[in-house]
Write a structure and sequence with these properties.
CATH architecture of one domain: 3-Layer(aba) Sandwich
Number of helices: 17
Radius of gyration: 23 Å
Structural class: alpha/beta
CATH class of one domain: Alpha Beta
CATH topology of one domain: Rossmann fold
Number of strands: 27
Largest sheet: 14 strands, mixed
Helix content: 25-40%
Distance between the termini: 45 Å
Length: 556
């Protein structure tokens, strides 16, 4: 068994073949669902797998119960003809049926996909159509949106309703589950067989795509969760990400349970009091969340009413975290926030901060053992420390995508000169730490200098008047581009020319004479994806009068 007490030694000696020993194989075959649920049920079946906190009730499920219920659902799917490789998607809020059906799908050998419950008709139609989805699990309320586009979905054979039957080609979940067997022979899958189809929520103008992740991804998902999330056997863990997005799939269902960790799920929307109350109620030890959520918690003083002493480790993902939020965490939770970095396409974390390493403020951390990550130029040449370039990795990791569904040209576009190009830019210091600069298409070129939006946003966030900030490059006839800032103010502050000048001086002092906003727009909120990423391209499109592009991932 691996440990990460010494990063340098582990990184040097690590091999994926050794990491495979942490996963249960059937000879040369495996299944994500078996590793996440059934093998835990076999060893300690009465251990709580899931604490579910609903809006009006709460429930708990042991690993035995999760095994039995997912077996039942696998039998329901088999009854209606689901075969290996068929696409079965889930369109549900964070209720127990989502988690049960997800593993039931994987047990049959079908490909599982998830849709965020806030998607509108267009977002639903595009994903179900592109994925050629055959079965959809949903509820009566969300089905109303599906019904409006169902005529455009020729591959959709059945809808499984978790709250009752209505109409033709509808399967009654409760009725079928009641009669289904609790025993099921799990499909033994080849390591490269597809397991997940996860649609990207790009902040750029690229079309959404069905990213296909294989069953062998669990090797990397398991070990990265173990090390980055620093799991102990008796931990209570809460990943706040919705399973409609990749973090919620990988680190709130697969990797946490493959590590035999008791996990918390909250059905509702963000509410600071409710979040703090859940931490206190379940004595949460490990929290994995997004920078946006951390900033929202920071803007509330509700923490003073709750006992948060159980929290010993916090991780964040989704976008780079501003230093002020890290300082706040130390004050409130008495722990640092450990950032990590990855993408839907990589299938699991690839760069991160670890408890055995010093944290450098603003850094994403170092590559995970087994991951060769570098900063490279457009020709694949590795750049020296301090030089900005493309974040790229060698594509020999278990979790990396094996396809873009029915779009091989797009899949191939990610790979050049022996590297997988992430589309993000960074620089690496002499100690091997990565520092995020921004999306390649977000970089601002002003007065002949390149400026990453994140460094400006981080400086802005340290100003006492600013709650949230986003910056874009705006065309300028003299400077090429100027930096325009969109600002959400803290309570008690009002926009003024004097405040703008004060912010400019504040940023200049921290960055440089060219890297400060020359134009401001004060707003009530910033456009974000449902997973919390700021949609700079939408701000830029509105500013320049350009088409907004796909808005299915936009937070409503």
């Amino acid at each position: 068994m691996f440990n990460l007490k010494n990063y340098e030694k582990t990184y040097k000696n690590f091999s994926w073949d050794q990491a495979k020993k942490e996963i249960s194989f059937f000879g040369k075959k495996l299944n994500i669902a078996y590793n996440s649920i059934d093998r835990n049920a076999e060893k300690n079946g009465e251990k709580i797998a899931l604490y579910w906190e609903g809006e009006k009730e709460s429930k708990s499920f042991t690993f035995n119960e999760m095994r039995e219920q997912s077996n039942k659902f696998a039998n329901v799917l088999k009854k209606y003809g689901i075969k290996k490789g068929d696409r079965v998607f889930i369109f549900l809020p964070r209720i127990p049926e989502l988690y049960i059906s997800f593993f039931g799908i994987l047990k049959t050998g079908a490909i599982a996909g998830t849709l965020f419950s806030a998607f509108g008709e267009k977002g639903i139609e595009e994903r179900l159509k592109k994925g050629e989805v055959k079965f959809l699990i949903t509820n009566r309320e969300l089905k109303k949106r599906v019904d409006k586009v169902k005529k455009n979905l020729p591959d959709l054979k059945y809808i499984i309703l978790v709250d009752g039957k209505e109409g033709k080609k509808i399967i009654d979940y409760k009725k079928e589950m009641k009669n289904a067997s609790e025993e099921f022979s799990i499909a033994k899958m080849n390591p490269d067989d597809p397991a997940l189809m996860l649609f990207t929520s790009s902040t750029s103008n690229t079309p959404i795509a069905g990213i296909v992740i294989p069953h062998k991804a669990i090797i990397q998902q398991h070990i990265t969760a173990k090390w980055a999330l620093d799991f102990n056997e008796d931990d209570i863990y809460w990943c706040t990400a919705d399973p409609g997005w990749v973090t919620g799939v990988v680190y709130s269902m697969i990797a946490n349970w493959s590590n035999n960790i008791t996990s918390v799920v909250y059905e509702g929307r963000f509410d600071a009091d409710r979040w703090y109350g859940i931490i206190e109620k379940y004595k949460v030890n490990v929290l994995y969340t997004a920078p946006t959520a951390i900033r929202m918690l920071k803007s509330s003083n509700a923490h003073k009413k709750y006992d948060l002493s159980s929290v010993r480790h916090i991780c964040s993902v989704g976008e780079a975290l501003d230093p002020d939020s890290i300082k706040w965490s130390m004050k409130v939770f008495k722990t640092k926030i450990y950032e990590n970095y990855w993408q839907t396409e990589t299938g699991a974390m690839i760069i991160g901060n670890f408890r055995c390493l010093k944290i450098k403020p603003g850094s994403m951390g170092k590559p995970f053992p087994g991951v060769v990550a570098k900063v490279v130029d457009e020709k694949g040449k590795i750049l020296p420390s301090g030089k900005e370039g493309n974040i790229a990795i060698k594509p020999n990791i278990p979790a990396i995508m094996i396809d873009v569904w029915k779009n091989r040209r797009m899949y191939n576009s990610y790979f050049r000169h022996g590297w997988y190009y992430t589309g993000d830019r960074a620089y690496m210091d002499r100690d091997g730490y990565f520092f995020f600069v921004g999306r390649a298409d977000d970089i601002i070129k002003t007065s002949g200098e390149r400026v990453g939006p994140f460094e400006v946003e981080s400086a802005l966030m340290e100003h006492p008047a600013i709650n949230e900030a986003a910056v874009i490059g705006k065309p300028d006839p003299i400077r090429g581009e100027i930096i325009k800032a969109f600002i959400v103010l803290q309570k008690g502050y009002k926009p003024s020319k004097k405040l703008e000048e004060d912010i400019q001086k504040f940023v200049k002092k921290r960055l440089a004479g060219h890297a400060y906003p020359r134009e401001f727009q004060f707003v009530d909120s910033l456009p974000k994806t449902h997973s919390g990423k700021i949609m700079r391209r939408l701000l830029k499109a509105k500013e320049l009068g350009l088409p907004a592009g796909d808005l299915s991932s936009l937070e409503k």
